[in-house]
Amino acid sequence: MRATRFKAAVVIAAVSALVLSGCADSDRDEPDAGANTDATLIFGTEGEITTLDPTWTSDSISSRVNGQIYETLVRLAPGTVDIVGGLAETWEADETGTVWTFNLRDGVTFHDGAEFNSEAVCFNFERWHNLPPGLAQSPDMSYYWQQLSGGFAENSPDRTDLGDPLYVSCESPDPLTTVITLREPSAKFPNLMVRQQFGIHSPDALQQFDADNIGGTPAAPEFPVYADEHPTGTGPFMFESWDRANGEVTLVRHDNYWGETATIARLIFRAIPDENARRQALLSGEIHGYDQPNAADWDTLESNGMRLEIRDAMNLLYIAFTQDQNPALEDIRVRQAIAYALNRQAMVDAVMPDGAEVASQFSPPLLPGWNPDVPAYEYDPDRARDLLSQAGFEEGEFEIDFWWPTDVTRPYMPDPQSIFELFRADLEAAGIVVNAISVPWTPEYLAEVQNGAAGAHFLGWTADFPDTINFLGTWFSRPLPQWGFDNQSIFDGLAEADAEPDSETRYAMYEELNAEIMEYLPGVPISHTPVAIVFAPNVTGVEASPLLDEVFATAQISE
Question: Class assignment of domain 315-529?
Answer without folding.
Answer: alpha beta
